[in-house]
Automatic annotation (TrEMBL):
GO terms for molecular function: glutamine synthetase activity. This is Glutamine synthetase. Residues 13-97 form the GS beta-grasp domain. Gene3D superfamilies: Glutamine synthetase, N-terminal domain, Glutamine synthetase/guanido kinase, catalytic domain. SUPFAM superfamilies: Glutamine synthetase, N-terminal domain, Glutamine synthetase/guanido kinase. Its main location: cytoplasm.
């Protein structure tokens, strides 16, 4: 969309405000709003200034001036503001006009540029399945003398005896009993449908929605695949709509990977493929799962670099509460067709040549989508460049339920890192694939690791409530 088309959209829709947005290292959006009367063609040339020193991981106060450069291809009308508002995603530039090398969105774009320069293909397509919970109430506190959390849901298994409903209406969702039931067990059909309606109005192509496995309101909405940066933009829009529609219904949505003990967590399974023009490069009819040698090398790169990759795709301490056996979590660094216990699954049901893809099941939605998608692409490209054979390295295929293998059979299967610190150790030891073509910089990695180490330390040094159960009577 040209600048003039954006200005026309502002005029035609009586837009009163234009909201300029960027994304920080953690994957959270920030915004500055201008009256539409202050927005003209020069705004899209000169950008919008902001204070980078107030954003964690960006710049010190002595170099705080930064600029948001609007991307005219990313505009949408905000569905939640009382005053007509047009939202625009932005890249971050330095005052001298250079792309800021810690800007997640610019990193995603540089990864796409590297793909095109590599000669492998022209486009990488991504489709995340970002699961979430819808709760009725959430409370938490962490202080010197107390620490607790409590969430509640009218659907929850623990509420079969609750009286506050004015007479318990039953039909609660059992632990691991929430996969696609109909009403009245599924109480959230309408709120998910409203989320879909708003997404469609905002420009997302939504394919389906349903209740997910866990009790207490776990949900999934799937939107159509697109190119790397566009999909990351779409995921930011998706999360924005989920959070705000939930709020309109008097509920709260969270993409936290493991908000409940003892039931399935929320993942972000990411489907990927590479095309050269209109030609799909992952398809080879008759081969294992109809995958081409190039696709197998891509899988090899993902699994070879997975321990380091997970520092970007699962970048929270809570991520590793989900990555434990027994809750459909893909903790095994292997590949398989149709097998959801593997880190990399190749979908085989109703797949066409253009729909042939791989699914990396380990990530979750605490990941910054721009950084994590870029890192996945770079790991896959490194596998293609080095012709990494996942079978030769013992990554599979494993077409049995890995959770049911004996301990002896599991010995040769690599597992994901057990903690955020372990993943960060792996990233520090293996990040050259990320700096290929200058997509990520060593400075970015060092800065990112330092921030995440602080998060891990903040959790590790605090007293956990369960420690009182274990140790208070010693």
């Amino acid at each position: 969309m040209s600048v003039q088309n954006v200005l026309n959209k502002i005029a035609e829709n009586n837009i009163q405000f234009v909201d300029f947005r960027f994304v920080d290292l953690a994957g959270r959006a920030h915004h500055i709003t201008l009256p539409s009367t202050e927005v003209d063609a020069e705004t899209f040339v000169n950008g919008v200034a902001f204070d980078g020193s107030s954003i964690e991981g960006f710049r010190g106060i002595e170099q705080s001036d930064m600029v948001m450069m609007p991307d005219t291809e990313s505009v949408f009308i905000d569905p939640f503001t009382d005053h007509p508002t047009l939202n625009v995603m932005c890249n971050i530039h330095t005052p001298d006009g250079e792309r800021y090398d810690r800007d997640p969105r610019s990193i995603a774009q540089k990864a796409e540029e590297l793909l095109q320069k590599s000669g492998v293909g022209t486009s990488a397509f991504f489709a995340p399945e970002s699961e979430f919970f819808i709760f009725d109430d959430v409370r938490y506190e962490s202080g010197m003398n107390k620490s607790y959390y409590e969430v509640d849901s009218e659907e929850a298994a623990w509420n079969t005896g609750r009286k506050e409903e004015g007479g318990n209406l039953g039909f609660k969702v059992g632990v691991k009993g929430g996969y696609v039931p109909v009403a009245p067990t599924d109480t959230q059909q309408d709120i998910r449908s409203e989320m879909v309606r708003v997404m469609q109005e905002a420009g997302l192509r939504v394919e389906r929605h349903h209740h997910e496995v866990a009790t207490a309101g776990q949900a999934e909405i799937n939107f159509r695949f697109s190119t790397l940066t566009k999909t990351a933009d779409n995921l930011m829009l998706y999360k924005y709509i989920v959070h705000n529609v939930a709020r309109q219904y008097g509920k709260v949505a969270t993409f936290m990977p493991k908000p409940l003990f003892g039931d399935n967590g929320s993942g972000m399974h990411v489907h990927m493929s590479i095309f050269n023009g209109d030609e799909p490069l992952f398809y080879d009819k008759g081969a294992y799962a109809n995958l081409s040698p190039l696709a197998m090398n891509y899988i090899g790169g993902i699994l070879y670099h997975a321990p380091a990759l997970i520092a970007l795709t699962n970048p929270s301490t809570n991520s590793f509460k989900r990555l434990v056996p027994g809750y459909e979590a893909p903790v095994n660094l292997v590949f398989s067709k149709g097998n959801r216990s593997a880190a990399v699954r190749i979908p085989i049901a109703a797949v066409t040549p253009k729909g042939c893809r791989i699914e990396f099941r380990t990530p979750d939605s605490t990941a910054n989508p721009y950084l994590s998608f870029a890192a996945m692409l770079l790991a896959g490209l490194d596998g293609i460049k080095r012709k990494i054979d996942p079978t030769a390295l013992g990554y599979g295929p494993f077409d049995t339920n890995i959770y049911e293998l004996s301990d002896e059979e599991k010995k040769e299967i690599r597992s994901v890192p057990g903690t955020l610190d372990e993943a960060l150790d792996a990233l520090e030891a293996d990040y050259e694939f990320l700096t290929e073509g200058g997509v990520f910089t060593a400075d970015f990695i060092e800065n990112y690791v330092a921030i995440k180490r602080n998060e891990a330390k903040a959790v590790a040094t605090r007293i956990h409530p369960h420690e009182y159960s274990l140790y208070f009577g010693c």
